[in-house]
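Exercise: predict the fold of this chain.
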Amino acid sequence: MYLKMQLNNGKQNLQKFVLIFQSTIQNIRLTFKALNFRSKSDNLNKAILFLKTHFQTNKSVHNYKFNEIPIKFISSALKRYIIVKTRSKNSSKKIKTVNMDRYEFMLYFYINKNISNGIVTIKDSLSYKDLEDELISEKYLEDNKENILKALENQLVSTDIEKILAYFELILDDRYQELNQRINSGSNNKIKIKYNKKNEITGWRLPYKKIDNDVNNPFFDSLNISSISQIMKFTNHNTKFMQKFTHILPTHSKKQSEEAVVSACVVAKATGNDIYKMKDISDVKEQDLIYTYNSFIRSQTIIASSDIILNKLAKLPIFAKYTISDYGVHASVDGQKLETKYNTIKARYSSKYYGLGKGISAYTCNANWLPLCTKIIGANEHESGYLLDIVQSNTSDIKIAAVSGDMHSINRVIFFLLFAFNNRFMPRFTKLEEKASKHLVSFNDPKNKKYDGYLIKPNKRVNKELILKEQNNILRILATLALKKNSQANIVKKLSSYKSNDTLKALIELDKIVMSLYIIDYIDDEEMQSNVHRSLNRGESYHQLKSAIVKVSGKKLTGKTEIEIGISNECARLISICIIYYNASLLSKIYEYCIKNGKVEECKKLIRLSPVAWQHINLIGKYEFLSNIEIPNMENMVAQLIMELNTIKIPKKIFKKT
């Protein structure tokens, strides 16, 4: 930006700028010589090759003729800043020459400018590699297309794009018509139409029901306080999840971990006390903690243990009742900003979230109150780039049908990507009216008379020809993602960085079609609106539970490396799952009792009761893992809670505006 200002202010200021930053240019030159830049512009490629050759040969700049220096990559408006006229030694005639200092800086300026939009790439870079290098090759796809599509076992990805477009074209206009008919007839009475003084329609809005906070329901208040070690012991007694903590060395694979010490290590990492502090606040020896942590505590073992509990949870009688929709499990994704104790690669400053400290974002996918999977991302990274990756990283037996998120979960291609992989994306939009008026599309001309009188109508026409033209590149992207040859984060970042790319434009066209269908359904279906909000609220409940665990030592994640930060995050998730399993087991037993005794109303209340509660669990103090800890008596607690059935309070709904 500063260089642009200097260029606009003329040659004199540019020369001063080059002189002032001469030392910086020397550093940039070293980077330029080391990196392998490639450009889609032939003129820029020639300039890059010329300057690299010049540095290698150490040829004097005065030995170059004007025509030997490639300057076509520079715009006409800027060429005048690098071309100077000087008198020849043997003649009074002025000849054109190039100011090499300005030329070098101008080349760096163009490389920097074009790296951001994908015109310049760096072959050996992770972030600036060419999209072609990120995808499976055209030749590989062409030679193995049938085998690839068969291996994917994904009907949508293997379906011809023309058939998909024909399906969209068939249903899209019908949905516009159905929605507007329901609005005009009054069947859809939730949408509120705005009128001016002349009784002319000026817009519309859609109220939604905000549900009160439903964590720590008073129903659990009557229970005796249990320690976190008791909860983990109860969970392991019923699920055997500790068996997944295997030794890191294959030669020691038969050696079993000690349950009490593993529990101490997990609690230490989750609460931020760390291994070396846990020896002072627990009954476990330091040497046992260090050995167990180094030998048994890894992200893989923690995730495998969490999956065991999640799969057991899914088999509880009450779990099926937590499913809020008839199309399957409705999940949600959201990032939770957490401060870190130490500086790491992904830790970033953010005064809004961390004050003067640094932190990360723990991106989590939640379904039916359960944190299915989580991933650490930088606080500066857009959550939407990881949405497909986080959904596909779910290794439990709980299968997701739809996923919701806030505005941070939306990017230009995510609707279609999730659709292609058999998941429906159902975000909660802010300013829904504005979004609908700008982004709704159809296969017909929006000015078509058939849309006259429609309150909800398309604004743009789908570029069907572009989609068909780019169908092979679209298939390459989908096949690359499906075969896990690359992550959605890398590919979406790459596509989003391009300012003008036909493949990206075609994907955006497909995305707008899927988004249009969702917006129409969302406006027309009150139950869908409720499901989206409830799913997101459940995800927020988990964040509150996790905050209660992490803030035991000041709400900071421990770990000096990305691996250790990931372990701390997974340990916090594991303890959260143990607490939820404990609560859900209680509620499930009570639910079975109510079913058996015909208590219909109590059953309805129990289903709405959140298993995310921790007021009856002690997370702080001195931890005891090795002493003779008693497992909470489930029968006594169930009998006690059955007497409290009349005290169940269900969260209220409050109408808000979108």
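Check your answer against the key: Residues 355 and 448 are 54 Å apart (CA to CA).
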